[in-house]
Amino acid sequence: MIDWPAAARAVHVLSVVHWIGGLAFVTFVILPSLREFEVERRLAMFDALERRFAWQARISVLLAGTSGFYLFVVFGHWDRITDAGFWWLHAMIALWAIFMLMLFAAEPLFLHAWFDARARRDPDGAFRVALRGHRVLSTLALITVAGAVGGVHGLF
Q: First and final CA of the chain: distance in angstroms?
């Protein structure tokens, strides 16, 4: 017999590792490395790499949300939503919501076009904005992961 909550937890952890690990790799390895290229090539490579990872991130974010919601329901943790001691749970939900909006609404509807227009006017500035945005999101994500792991294991 399959232990569905255990399977969901495995899917949840794997999807978060892929999503946040990929974000961290893009933020702290790929983007800083692109600074070594001339502006036109830098933006073209950033676009190609971002597009390749975006569909993977969408799948990971969907799997993290679906498995997380399933676990939430199965274990009946509804009372934790109103408890400030579970700040890490609130952080997980907020981070997931931000990425859902970014990946499924903002990016396809207007953010990609806005970035392209900005890159034509000010390529260096556009790259700095992208790097700063990735750093902010990566920092929030790493704090959330640390808080979630600590929270689940009774640290808080």
A: 34
What separation in angstroms does the CA of 100 have from each of 93, 138, 141, 151? 10, 15, 14, 23
What amino acid occupies position 52? R
**Tokens encoding 2:** 């399959």
CB contact at 8 A, 31 and 145: no
The contacts of residue 11 (CB under 8 Å, 6+ apart) are: 63, 67
Q: 133: exposed, middle or buried (C-beta count within 10 Å: 0-12, 13-18, 19+)? A: middle
Residues 3-31: tens digit of each pLDDT: 999 999 999 999 999 999 999 999 999 99
The model's pTM is 0.91
Q: Distance of alpha carbon 129 from its chain centroid, rounded?
A: 17
For residues 37-44, give the mean pLDDT. Answer: 86
- Per the CB < 8 A criterion, the answer to whether 67 and 13 are in contact is no
